[in-house]
Each structure stands twice: as structure tokens, then as C-alpha cells.
Design goal:
The chain is 43% helix and 13% strand. By secondary structure, it is α+β, with helices and mostly antiparallel strands. Helix 2 crosses helix 3, helix 3 crosses helix 6 and helix 7 packs across helix 12. The protein is elongated. The protein starts with 7 loop residues before the first strand and ends in a 16-residue tail after the last strand.
């Protein structure tokens, strides 16, 4: 039987040795979470929080619009329901008592629902491959919970009522926790962490890069302005790469940033600070003197040039915690995306949701 130790990371994928019947082969290292809000849900989706989630025993529904008891269905994944109450709980767990602006709520609901869909896809995949939580494992967890509650003179039904979770939801939550924990035990190994570190060394070893940039401002929420800035940036980059103009001169001519007078020089930055994630992500794949393609951040469109690289000294052991988080997120995203391509996902309209394959809200 294949263990987590047998899975090897290279620069593009998790690969298998030719003689080994490994059931998981995935690309590695190129995908990153695109929006900061994703991280609000990340620890919940990946099973790091005390909250536990997803489904094994929910019966397929014949009518996606039909509530089950007090549970309103928000979507179905291959016939298995995702409940509106689960979407609401995701938001509650992610944001707590913080007030959510009404204008932001539809996007956040859609993001939460998307995470729940991903969990359901992963659960179903691992169930079919024989790596899901068994009925015995789930019942054992319920028995343990009952004993903990009894020591406080609380019944399970009283506890579930107090946290507004049904028994059906509880079983779904337990299945996700058990299944994901077992999955990570197989693949979140020291060998895999070290290989991931070697393939993404700059992300974790403390490397610093000196960068300069050219900023093209974009009018707020103006799609045409964004397109114009992207086109301008592409033309300027073409001139720089073609040798028609030096980067420093182009910055003085075209950049709207305060650094323009200094040829766009920002100084040294680290992978996760102080710049926006999109900016840093684009920077840390550059070689010295290389100019990036146009990069979009909340500040506008950037051309970024790496002028100097100071290699970091951290080892993979030093970065173990960050590596574990990164690899876990990667495995979650990969498994969900792989299963999405063949899944039947239906939305009831009870919750806001994204157009398939995008983060655009459906009408």
C-alpha cells in the first residue's frame, strides 16, 4: 500500500515512481490563493480549526429545492446536499462577531459555499478510493463526544441544540475531520515538506529581493481603465525588453508611484512582506534583471524588475510550520479542482454562488 512517504514532489507536480501504483498525481507549486478573503476560510476548509465539516451519510436528494426538515439546501454535489445553515456557519466561524458589510455579503456567501463544495468533492473522492472515514470511526468519535459531555452533565442533544447543529450536520462535520486528518497523515510527510521547500525555496528560506516597479494607476471599478493600463504596461514592457528604453527611464516617464523619480526602486522586500501578495508572488519567480509581465494589485498595474537577490538561509526544518500550511492548502485545492471537472453541481438559489469556473457572482 502506498504511503505518504512514497509521494515525491518535483518542480511541477507530485509524481510517482514508475513501479508504484500511486493513486494521487498532481501538479505542484504554481497555484496560489488569489484573494485575501480566501484565508478567512482557509483554516476552516482545511480542518485546522476546532470546527469540523463535510458529508458522508447525507442521502442524495431528488429535488434540490426541497428543504430537509429545517435544513434548506443551498446546492447539491453529485446529488448530495450542502445546506444553507452550513454556509452561514462558515461565515460565522470565519468572521465571528465582526459586522459584514451588506455589499460584501453575496461574495462572502459564494466563497463559503465554494469551500463547502470543495470539501464535499474531496470527501466523495476519498470515499470512493477507500480512504474516507468509516462508520465505525464516526461512531467512535460520537461516543467520545458523548462521554465528554456526560462528564459535564450535558446530553448530546442538549449540546447540539445549544450550538444550533443538527445530528445530520454533526455527522457530516465529523466525517470531514476524520477523512482529512487521515489524508494528511499519508501525504504531509517530512519527505514531501522538504521536496516542496526545495521546489519553492524562495518562498520559505528568507530570500530578499531588491525590486523596482512602474505603476500604472487604474480608476476604481473601471474595467476600461484597467484594460487601458494593461495595454500601456504591455507596450512599455515590450520596449524595455527590446532594449528601446532602460527600466529606470521608463519608470521616470510612465510610473505614477512616488518611487518614479528614483527609477522605480523600492528596495529589498521579503516574500510575505511588505508588498501585496500579488506583487510579491510575481516578484519571487523573477531572476536578476528580469522584468515581469503586467501585474494587477489594488493599487493598479505594475511592471516589476528584480535588480538583486539575497538568498535566504532558513532550512526546511526552520520553515516546517509554514510549509505544512502551504502543502495542506495545495493538496486541498488540487483534490477539489480535479474532482470539479467531472462533478454535477447544482445551485438552488438559496445562497449567492459563483459562475462555474470563476469568482464572478451568478445573476
Amino acid at each position: 500500500m502506498t504511503t505518504g512517504h512514497d509521494i515525491l514532489f518535483d518542480t511541477a507536480r507530485i509524481v510517482r515512481r514508475a513501479s508504484e501504483p500511486v493513486e494521487i498525481v498532481s501538479p505542484i507549486g504554481t497555484r496560489r490563493l488569489q484573494r485575501a478573503v480566501v484565508h478567512q476560510f482557509a483554516t476552516i476548509a482545511l480542518g485546522f480549526a476546532g470546527c469540523i465539516a463535510a458529508s458522508s451519510f447525507a442521502a442524495p436528494v431528488s429535488d434540490a429545492q426541497q428543504p430537509v426538515g429545517d435544513l434548506v439546501i443551498a446546492a447539491t454535489v453529485n446529488g448530495e446536499p450542502i445546506y444553507l445553515s452550513e454556509v452561514e456557519r462558515e461565515l460565522q466561524t470565519a468572521f465571528g462577531a465582526r459586522e459584514i458589510a451588506e455589499s460584501a455579503l453575496p461574495y462572502l456567501q459564494a466563497k463559503a459555499l465554494s469551500q463547502l463544495i470543495d470539501r464535499s468533492l474531496i470527501i466523495q473522492w476519498l470515499r470512493t478510493t477507500g480512504h474516507g472515514a468509516s462508520t465505525t470511526e464516526i461512531e467512535l468519535e460520537i461516543t467520545r463526544l458523548k462521554k465528554q459531555l456526560e462528564s459535564r452533565s450535558i446530553s448530546l442533544s442538549e449540546h447540539l441544540a445549544s450550538i444550533r447543529v443538527t445530528e445530520t450536520e454533526m455527522r457530516r462535520l465529523l466525517e470531514w475531520q476524520i477523512t482529512w486528518r487521515k489524508f494528511l497523515a499519508r501525504y504531509l510527510t517530512d519527505e514531501n515538506l522538504e521536496r516542496y521547500f526545495n521546489d519553492h525555496r524562495r518562498d520559505f528560506d528568507g530570500t530578499q529581493m531588491r525590486v523596482a516597479h512602474i505603476l500604472f494607476k487604474v480608476a476604481s471599478d473601471d474595467t476600461s481603465s484597467l484594460e487601458q493600463s494593461l495595454q500601456r504596461a504591455a507596450k512599455v514592457r515590450e520596449a524595455i525588453v527590446g532594449g528601446s528604453i532602460e527600466f529606470t527611464e521608463a519608470a521616470k516617464l510612465h510610473s505614477t508611484a512616488p518611487t518614479a523619480a528614483n527609477g522605480g526602486d523600492i528596495g529589498f522586500i521579503e516574500r510575505h512582506r511588505p508588498m501585496h501578495e500579488a506583487f510579491s508572488r510575481a516578484t519571487f519567480v523573477l531572476e536578476a534583471q528580469e522584468v515581469s509581465p503586467p501585474v494587477i494589485t489594488p493599487f493598479g498595474v505594475h511592471l516589476i524588475r528584480c535588480t538583486e537577490i539575497k538568498p535566504g538561509q532558513r532550512t526546511w526544518q526552520d520553515a516546517r510550520e509554514d510549509l505544512a500550511t502551504a502543502v495542506t492548502r495545495y493538496l486541498f485545492d488540487w483534490a477539489a479542482e480535479k474532482e470539479r471537472t467531472k462533478a454535477e453541481i447544482k445551485f438552488t438559489g438559496a445562497s449567492a454562488h459563483f459562475v462555474t469556473g470563476s469568482e464572478k457572482l451568478a445573476e
